[in-house]
Amino acid sequence: MRILRITPLHFAVLFCTVMGGSAMAQTNTVTVSQDAKFEELLNEKRKINSSITVNDRYKLQIFYGANDKARKALQDFKRDFKDLDGTIVFESPTYKVWVGSFSSRMDAERKLSEVRKKYPNALLVKPNK
């Protein structure tokens, strides 16, 4: 008959098993405090975003490509055409510069012919249509 001896390995496994069952995880609570102005600003942004309609307006796309070049194109455009507003739209993997907001296609095409003198690759778009 063979007698089993407790080796250090057996002792370590036994110790971890017994102690592991009684170990408890840490419990903690996180409290976040924020300025009331932050909530006001967030609500204002939500109001502004909901009032922006992109679907029913015609836009002129003057550029598509890399982010830094799109920013430069928009900056140049705003300098040349102060009466039109513009924005950069990201559609993976490119950035597009859209300018203007026209209710009718005829108005958009008139402005397009003027914009094409400076930006020959400009085109007319109607987002989400």
Secondary structure blueprint with pairings:
Elements: H1 8-22, H2 36-51, E1 58-65, H3 67-80, E2 86-91, E3 94-102, H4 105-115, E4 123-125
Antiparallel strand pairs: 1-3, 1-4, 2-3
Radius of gyration: 31 Å
Low-confidence stretches: none
Number of helices: 4
CATH superfamily of the domain at 54-125: Sporulation related repeat
Indicate the mean pLDDT. 83
Instruction: Tell me the name of the CATH class of the domain at 54-125.
Output: Alpha Beta
Share of β-strand residues: 15-25%
Shape: elongated
Task: Strand order, main sheet: write it out.
Answer: 2-3-1-4
How many runs of DSSP E, i.e. beta strands? 4
Helix/sheet category? alpha+beta
GO molecular function, one term: peptidoglycan binding
Signal peptide: 1-25
Protein name: Sporulation protein
InterPro entries: SPOR-like_sf (IPR036680)
Provide an overview of this structure:
Strand 2 and strand 3 form a beta hairpin. Strands 2-3-1-4 form a four-stranded antiparallel β-sheet, with helices on one face. The protein is about 45% helix and about 20% strand. The chain has a domain at about 55-125: 2-Layer Sandwich (Alpha-Beta Plaits), CATH 3.30.70.1070. With about 130 residues, the chain is α+β, with helices and mostly antiparallel strands. It contains four helices and four strands.
